[in-house]
């Protein structure tokens, strides 16, 4: 296993943490708390990515981490089998991030998101979870065919599919309910 902790990679991959916003979105009943720390701690916190391999194709502007991938910044962790980061040609601006695997796991404190594919679109500032997606906050859980987060709107949509409907289980009295910080 190789640990990748490069300044260049940290700058380019700091946007990876936007993916983890799904665990930080407030529920409609929660007001924004100005005392809350930055989303993933200080944005200057380093991004550490550990994987079996890293293949950066400069011509195509794609960084591909494969094999037991773990990405961390502050208190946020992402686990997946493959992490692909797409950049636009000029200036290497982040374009898209795709995390895939048998089990993609995002953790922030006691909150957890699970799916088989997590796709972040930078131009739309949108995250799409597919492949048995679920969001857990303690005992509270929500599942569906697709979970979409619109980051700028602070809104999410959980869609059902042909074989399954949206399912939500909420335990009254549990701190934060389904309120994703």
Reported by name, the CATH topology of the domain at 2-127 is lipopolysaccharide transport protein A fold
Q: How is the main sheet built?
A: 13 strands, antiparallel
CATH class of the domain at 2-127: Mainly Beta
Q: Rounded to an integer, what's the Rg over CA atoms?
A: 16 Å
Which residue ranges are poorly predicted, with pLDDT under 50 across at least 5 consecutive positions?
Answer: 1-42, 177-181
Count of alpha and pi helical runs: 1
Tell me the overall shape: globular
The share of residues in helices is under 10%
First-residue to last-residue Cα separation:
33 Å
Structural class: mainly beta
Task: Describe the fold and architecture.
The protein has one helix and 13 strands. It has a domain at 2-127: lipopolysaccharide transport protein A fold (Sandwich). Residues 1-42 and 177-181 have low confidence and may be disordered. It has one helix at residues 7-13; strands at residues 2-4, 48-51, 53-57, 62-73, 76-87, 94-108, 111-121, 126-130, 134-137, 140-143, 146-150, 155-159, 167-169. It is 4% helix and 49% strand. Strands 1, 2, 3, 4, 5, 6, 7, 8, 9, 10, 11, 12 and 13 form a 13-stranded antiparallel sheet that branches. The longest helix has 7 residues, at 7-13. By secondary structure, the protein is mainly β. The chain is globular and about 50 Å long.
What's a concise summary of this model?
The chain is mainly beta and 181 residues long. It has a domain of 126 residues: lipopolysaccharide transport protein A fold, CATH 2.60.450. It contains 1 helix and 13 strands.
């Amino acid at each position: 296993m190789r640990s990748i902790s490069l300044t260049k990679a940290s700058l380019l991959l700091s946007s990876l943490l936007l993916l983890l916003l799904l665990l930080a979105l407030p529920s409609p009943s929660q007001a924004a708390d100005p005392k809350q720390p930055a989303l993933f701690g200080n944005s200057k916190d380093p991004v550490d990515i550990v994987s079996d391999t890293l293949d950066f194709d400069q011509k195509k502007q794609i960084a591909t981490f494969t094999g037991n991938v773990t990405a961390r910044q502050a208190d946020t962790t992402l686990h997946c089998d493959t992490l692909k980061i797409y950049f636009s040609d000029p200036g290497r601006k982040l374009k898209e991030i795709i995390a895939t695997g048998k089990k993609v796991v995002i953790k922030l404190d006691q909150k957890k998101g699970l799916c088989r594919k997590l796709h972040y679109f930078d131009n739309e500032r949108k995250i799409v979870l597919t492949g048995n997606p679920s969001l857990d906050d303690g005992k509270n859980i929500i599942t569906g065919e697709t979970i979409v987060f619109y980051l700028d709107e602070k809104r999410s949509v959980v869609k059902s599919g042909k074989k399954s409907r949206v399912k939500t289980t909420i335990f009254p009295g549990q701190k934060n309910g389904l309120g994703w910080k």
